[in-house]
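Recall that a protein's primary structure is simply its ordered list of amino acids. Everything else, from secondary elements to tertiary packing, is in principle encoded there. The following example makes that idea concrete.
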Amino acid sequence: MTAPALRTGLIGWGAIGRVVGRALADGAVPGAELVCVVDNRPLGADVPAPRCTVEQALERCDLLVEAAGQGLVREWGERVLESGTDLLIASTGALADEDLAKRLLDAGPGRLHATGGALGGLDLLQAVCAMGPLDEVRLTTTKLPATLEQPWMGEELRTRLRTATGPVEVMTGTARDVPERFPRSTNVAASVALAVGDPGAVRVTVVADPAARQTSHVVEAHGPHGSYRFEVRHVPDPGNPATSGVVPYAVLRSLGALTGRTGQIL
């Protein structure tokens, strides 16, 4: 007997949401059915599912996929999970807030899931940390200067970014504070922190480079059980250069795992 399709709602119809939504509507994830889209903006005529509010989505869906930013996770995460609806988030940067992360992980009966997004190797880091804590974890993220400008920056730093002719170190801190400063550009930092179980243990450096035609993430980790290095370079999404084009496909892969697709690397 075939299991009923996972009734899936999509929150956010931007660069990530459009790819995920159209793929779901085309049957790219067997076992998942797109039943609604939540977004306050005009969506156009090509949206493949009815538009609704979050409250309506909670009544219709088994799973909500967040592709709308960290603010949505903060505002609605607990209510979604407490309603019994599962939640898959792309904006893992919200989990750098340890109080929020704890509340979401403790909430239920809905289950919280996070996609790995633009970075690989997180499954291995999680496995290694089950053997014991790592001594050092470092993440270096390099992006185009324009994608890293933030309202909190002073004029001197803005000028350095806009006139840079080579790499500029924009900020160094932990995975606890860097995602808060770069809410659209450092979800990877929070994902690494989630994998190792401690945002304060992950040292993050954000670099602006005018020659960075690809977004780069380098993770280096060392501990009693070994040394690990992961490096990825992605072409930025043309519709949203702050994110990588692979992210919606990482979301779709996560959905495939949740629906029980065979052949997945788990």
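The longest helix spans residues 70-82. The mean pLDDT is 90.
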